[in-house]
Amino acid sequence: MHVFIQAASVWLNEPLRGFIRKYVPESIFYDDFGDVPKDARTVFQFCDGWDLSRNFAAVNSADKALINAYPSSDALARKNYLSRVVEYWTAKNPESILKTHSPLTVCLSLDYAEYVDEALMAADDLSLFYSLSENENRPPEEREWWILKPALVDCGAGIRLFSTVEELASHLELAEYEVDDDDEEQEEPVEQKMQLNGKLATDKGVDCASEFSPTLDTPGLDSLDGLFTAVGGLKLKKQPYVFKEGGRIPSSEMREFVAQRYITAVAPLDKRKWHVRAYVLSMGRLKVYVFREMLALLALEDYEPPWLNPSIRSSLTNTALQDEDDFLRRESMRDFWETPSDLLPGGGRGKSWKENVFDQICGITSELFRAAAHTMADKFTTLNKCFELFGVDFLVDEVGTAWLLEVNETPAFYQQGVAGPLSLRLMDSVILIALEHMRLAQPGDERNENTRKRMVEVLDETNKLAKSNIIQITAEG
Predict the structure, then answer these.
(1) Nearest to residue 172, comparing CAs of 104, 240, 118, 105?
(2) What's the predicted TM-score (pTM) here?
(3) Which of 59, 232, 236, 295 is an S-S bond match for 65, by CB 3.0 to 4.6 Å?
(4) CA distance 121 to 115
């Protein structure tokens, strides 16, 4: 087997090679992708997500191959598409677990603060408009609060809280002919490097030869070969968005947002808000696994509801917003299973609240991936030679209900604290499942039982996805 390893988290490269050698000792490794033989019949790749056209081409030509990326997973990773997936699926399946475990989410197309009223009225769902209107006559503590998220940006960037139309407008960019005196007095903007469509946007980046960005739903590119041919040597570049600390966001550049009902009734952990990071492996077409070990990720500051403390650092639990020294000092990454047993009420039937939350996460994950495959297959392109590892985030409220927040297609893997050893165990299990999928490791080998048991299979659609797997409502291109 010919193997190319170039993980986004560089520190994982050598451990990944070691796991592969453990299961397939005769593997041949390459540091330079150009050295992989063009006629290689068995190829395994674990890549960082850049310049994937060449990587997909090698997979396409090999008899037996696997790569850690689907041609498209936008249906899950883009917040506006994820919202549509839930909307379409629950419309057809009103008893779905997604109906009661996904916060109400409204897709918005925003540009400038002056036009926010028009944007609210133009939304497909007027729930947000009515909610903000009703909030005008309520004291802050009695309002329904909302959280604004850019659809294409990860790492917690550009997120704002609001409860009225005026508050929403105050977060948005002013039209070019308007100047905000407060903004003029702000210090120089603080640059943040974010992830766009799950790919890291850096200052170096790669040159963009064209504005043409083909996908499988581009007319005429309905096959993998067609997509590879059209992409060719095209390289993508996206400069980092620039944000002012607590100030207006560059909404005219972002355009696509979601507004999600903000859950204020949470049980703080050591006085801080937290969420669960679950790791989900989607293999081939289509089996889905949830890694049993999970992280509890904590906000930097002590939690207070937004009407008492509007600081994002109190409300957001994304470690990307925290300096490394801070999240290590304050232990912002913790083992979920080691959280206090009395933090929340028990789950019933003799189960702890943590077991109950894990069961909910497995059920939500299974339903979500099934929904994406059946309602938006052009944007969740599952192929037998592909797999992908996702970080899925859940908020647990004060009664122990798990709420789906978002899906990250390139989750960060930290080497520090409890996250480092967890990441290694996760990668060991991912490699084992991947090589079993390729039939290069024996599924029944008892020596690998403990590694395999860390992954809980929650979905198997292998015999339910036909060649054209769009069998329900599909979003317009």
Answers:
(1) 118
(2) 0.84
(3) 59
(4) 10
